[in-house]
Amino acid sequence: MVKTSPHFARPAAALLLPLTLLAAPALAQPGVKEDSVVLQPDKVKDDAPVVETAAEANLPDWSKRNAEALLTAIERIGTEGLFAKDYNPDALAAAILGDDQTQLDRVATDTFLLLATHLRDGRTPNAARKQWFMVDSDSNSEPLLALLATALNAGSITETLASLNPAHPDFAALKASLAKAKAPADANAIRVNMERWRWMPRNLGERYVVSNVPEYVTRVVHGGTVIATHKAVVGKASTPTPQLNPMATGVIVNPTWTLPRSIINEGIGATIANNPARARAQGYTWTGSGKTLSVVQKAGPGNALGVMKLEMLNEHAIYLHDTPSKGAFAAAARAFSHGCIRTERALHFSGLMAVMFAGRSPEEFGEVVASGKTTRFGFDDPFPVYVAYWTIVPDGKGGVKKLADIYGRDAPVVASFAKPGRPTATIVAPKAPPVVPTVTTTARATTPGTSGIY
Questions:
Q1: Which of 90, 271, 309, 438 is deepest in the core (most CB within 10 A)?
Q2: Model confidence pLDDT, tens digit, residues 181-207
Q3: Catalytic residues per the record (predicted)?
């Protein structure tokens, strides 16, 4: 399925809701704090490859024509944001010129699988993917050995490798910009974001929500069209929002808020101990005391989660929600939260969720909001929420624009370009070809402007 760009797609008509719901609550609560992100350790180890020895596997037979097509693809791989030398074109060229068919089969197979791994899953090792927890299922839908066998039989090495690139129009826009980049720093910044697209599933789904943290924007996509766009407030530098893709299972209107221990310790715990009447006036209820203190804030206009919370279970305690502090949405840079994503025009957002994805009528939704009662609208068909991190995005004018790297996550990816990349997902040989840092290739003369090496 071709992914439709959340930047280029035409917005659909706004959801029609009762007029009484068009205005957000006017109440504001200075310094409101929502649930804190649960900081998880980065994944520093790369996935272990599936290894089959030559004796165990039926090595594919490589014709010289197919091997030459692979070599040509490697020499031109710079246009895809990767580096030719990573795939040892000199060794492949030598195998093509030699008379040892077994050697050609081994070198060409392992070279193809390494390149295909980087095209499908990304070159960047896990250690350089800071706070990236998205689950990419492409290895299940696009197994490399099966793709290779089909490509060899059909003589479609070039087409098969090209098919592994992200299909989203935003990736195509980045690729076009890479071809025009003049400065190495600009080219590397583009490569970083091309990489991030490869870390995600190729098929984002028929419907999904995507929040781009550096852009401070959340979009709702349905049927390939952006049907809603909302400003977002994201985690500040000390409590950064991680990247993940949990499934949204429902939207909770008039939610209660169970305070995390960190926020209890920051102040409300002392208020409960010293001025319980004030704490009750702010909507807090509690059980226990000291280290066993458990605090819940009742639903209401002063609740830290506002009028809605998108239910998206994940170990990071990240979700989209409303806030009574509307003033933050007026800022250009909106990294203020404890990690969760605050959503502007939350009534519109939650109404859209309830009507389009939970099968409720606008009137029913309006009645629930007005009642003040905590109500869950479960989705008939759960869908993914992509909390992403792109620092270069389409500008809507045929080019791209650069956003602030608010958490400093680009630099580790750029640094990884000078080191060996992620290992191949599948190895068919006792030993894979070496992966080396990027240098100018010498296998054979390449067409000027196609290497993409800086």
A1: 309
A2: 999 999 999 999 999 999 999 999 999
A3: 321, 340
d(CA 295, CA 292) in angstroms, rounded, equals: 10
Q: Which of 212, 275, 272, 242 is nearest to 135 (CA)?
A: 242
* Residue that the structure tokens 């950064």 belong to: 240
| Catalytic residue status for 118 | no
Tokens of 265: 């310790």
Over residues 277-332, the pLDDT tens digits come to: 999 988 999 999 888 999 999 998 789 899 999 999 899 989 999 999 899 999 99
62/386 Cα distance (integer angstroms): 40
Confidence of residue 10 (pLDDT cuts 50, 70, 90): very low
Q: Does the pLDDT value for residue 265 go beyond 90? A: no
- Give the residue extent of every domain in the chain: 50-164+419-428, 206-388
Query: Looking at 118, 321, 338, 348, which residue is catalytic?
Result: 321
Question: Is 7 noted as a catalytic residue in this protein?
Answer: no
**DSSP per-residue string spanning 161-213:** HHTTS--SHHHHHHHHHHHH--SHHHHHHHHHHHHHHHTS-S---SEEEEEEG
3-state secondary structure 358-425: CCCCHHHHHHHHHHCCCEEEEEEEEEEEEEECCCEEECCCCCEEECCCCCCCHHHHHHHCCCCCCCCC
| 206-388 belongs to CATH 3.20.20.10 | no
Asked whether 86 and 118 are in contact (CB, 8 A), the reply is yes
The catalytically annotated residue of 168, 338, 340, 348 is 340
